[in-house]
What we know:
Blueprint: E1 13-15, E2 18-22, E3 29-33, E4 36-42, E5 48-55, E6 63-66, E7 72-73, E8 76-82, E9 89-96, E10 99-100, E11 105-106, E12 120-121, E13 131-132, E14 155-158, H1 160-164, H2 177-182, H3 184-190, E15 194-197, E16 201-203, E17 220-226, H4 238-252, E18 256-261, H5 278-286, H6 310-326, E19 331-334, H7 353-360, E20 368-371, E21 391-394, H8 396-407, H9 413-420, H10 424-427, E22 435-437, H11 447-450, H12 486-505, E23 509-513, H13 541-545, H14 547-562, E24 576-580, E25 595-601, E26 607-613, E27 619-622, E28 630-637, E29 660-663, E30 667-675
Parallel strand pairs: 14-15, 14-23, 15-18, 18-19, 19-20, 20-21, 21-22, 22-23
Antiparallel strand pairs: 1-2, 2-8, 3-4, 4-8, 5-6, 5-9, 7-8, 10-11, 12-13, 16-17, 24-25, 25-26, 26-30, 27-29, 28-30
Helix pairs in contact: 8-9, 12-14
Amino acid sequence: xxxxxPIDAYPTERIAGFPVRAGRALPFGATQVPGGVNFSIYxxxxxxxxxxxxRAGERExxxxxxxxxxxxxxxxxxxxxxxxxxxGIEYGYRADGPYDxxxxxxxxxxxxxxxxxxxxxxxxxxxxxxxxxxxxxFDWEGDRPPRLAHEDLVIYExxxxxxxxxxxxxxSVPGTYAGLVEKIPYLLELGVNCVELxxxxxxxxSDNTFTGVNYWGYNPLGFFAPKASYAATGRYHMQVDEFKHxxxxxxxxxxxxxxxxxxxxxxxxxxxGPSITFKGLDNxxxxxxTPDGYYYNFSGTGNTLNCNHPVVRGFVLDCLRYWAAEFRxxxxxxxxxxxxxxGEGGELLHNPPLLESLAYDPVLRDCKLIAEAWDAAGLYQxxxxxxxxxxxxxxxxxxxxxxRFLKGDxxxxxxxxxxxxxxxxxxGHRGTSATVNFVTSHDGFTLRDLVSYDSKHNxxxxxxxxxxxxxxxxWNCGHEGExxxxxxLAVRARQTRNALLILLASRGVPxxxxxxxxxxxxxxxxxxxxxxxPLTWFDWRLVEDxxxxxxxxxxxLAFRRAHPVLRYGAPGAPGALSWHxxxxxxxxxxxxxxxVAAMLDGGGExxxxxxxxxxxxxxxxxxxxxxRGLSWHLFADTTAASPMDAYDPxxxxxxxxxxxxxxxxxxxxxxxxxxxxxx
Length: 679
């Protein structure tokens, strides 16, 4: 066999003194090859392309390398550059072409653009949004993803920085991927087995007209690049390793990792926004453009990605495959996912190519796919999202129903009953794993604020309280905001536990907002996207201050794990369901009824009775006879003082009266069966 010739034996040419040759069109991005780096960039409408190289941290380019026409294949410019110090360079592109906004073109050769496939972005330094070449030598040490069944998931939604940024966190590197690793014991003690991280793709943290702060990160710029400022180990190469280490350690603990991803828009805004990457490379391809050259705005942020264009669809697939294969994340929650089903003119597609491709992609086969099944233009697809037997949905109807029931709205008992058992009216053909149940999320009130405020209080956002959703279905329990009134505080404590107990006893996938388990507040701000401060950070002093609430949630999560009847996922799964009221076997579905009671019998000793009462008066309930000669024991009663508000599974005391039980005003209780003790 003939020995391979050295790199310098291959024909090359020189551009601006650098040895180069025609590169490979695929993969897109900057890829290390023997002796050099292959740069590949797509633009269907550019007339010329130039690679711009910088020494890391320097203002002016060290060289600009125009792509010869012979280095273009179709709409792809590809060049291999040799003799580069890979760790010491940054790069970007100049794209020349027509500036004709009426036809969707906004080329400007004076701008240096970021590579949309860049695996690293310089972030918020003085020369922000430059691209870098990634060096990958991470040792996964035999990592094995947990591969948890959907119905066994308990999702914990959190923000990487906000989770440990507060000094009270006690971690060595606050506000980082590494800081989150230090809190794994807390997650295990609480009992969650899946973290959903708010956006970790590179974004501009100063992208905000009103406060100068973009905290949530829902304006992505570098879709392949982990957020640089969330890394403790430096802004560049090590941030990739630090993110992977976080995933590896969470997997070791049996915890899955979901990413909140944004493919409905980018951080470039509308025609008034900056040209950072897509807009300058091929605006007419990447964005939905109106007939007069402006931007369709189904996202509410100024632009909408043209997701079902074949090139953009390929970009999304490449991105998700990268995070699934290289970072080993376990799934994705898609922001404003209804947009992903729109065509180039914004029309709703019957069979959206992107959603179908994601559902059947071989690399993504084991990934969880969760849709926020609505958009900012009024398209609401909860229960009707194109699922391809793969997608789950944030169940916004569940959220609204539980909130309205708890505050005592009329006509909610029947709807709550349907939500409790997995929303079969919407997901009966798919099973309860299709519904992600939640009462609160990052977007809106925290749970403590849900029971403390009738109205939003977003004055600190700089928009005169005009931002944020005004329909919160909240109730302040008798006083707006903070108070020392013991009566009001007692009702709030009970309502908090009511919400958590209903959520964690419902069939489907429960999602907790980080901090709700210890009473975190944002003082009525229901749109805190623009605050990177103690207002949004997890205050770890609350774990001790509100230890009774933490232990309540921990016990309820343990109870959920112990009782499969609460988690059945498949349609027609075993388990008898019966409805009850003040009288056993006689539910009341009239509009003014505020009581829902159910018995879920999974066979053996796995039988659970749930009673939720949003009436301001208590009721004595006749109990159905427990099956198979078992006896009723009390697991949880939100009217009881801690620690008797919930018991550790296996320690539940038997009811003295097996025929009746008292459910207090505005309260929830749960009973469970055990073998009858012989007298």
